[in-house]
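JOB MANIFEST
job_type = single_chain_structure
chain_count = 1
residues = 132
[input]
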Amino acid sequence: QVQLVESGGGLVQAGGSLRLSCVASGRTFREYTMGWFRQAPGKEREFVATINWRGGSTYQVYYTDSVKGRFTISRDNAKNTVYLQMNNLKPEDTAVYYCAASEPPSRLGSIPYYSGVAYDYWGQGTQVTVSS
């Protein structure tokens, strides 16, 4: 069983930046597809970004349209950590952000990367609040 621990959320003014971190317990972290989702009050969970292993040291990233050019997902396999760098934050980015992991062999071959059911493990969430 994999445990995910998130940190880095907080309150920031519009236009500011935050970096979220997610530390995983698994020894095969390098091969895990990692994703970030968010959920605002009264709204459904929304895909934000994902970084998936393509073999060797090659990874591929995808973002939802609303964060492209502002958010960057990355990972440090030596630290079992995935990051979400969020720049130029907007009030509509306010939500609880969740880290998710897909254990290999990933189901993403059959399930879209933006679907939460493709991921096997979830963090507890970290609150991000952006003021105007």
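[summary]
The radius of gyration is 14 Å.
Residues 37 and 48 are 5 Å apart (CA to CA).
exit_status = 0
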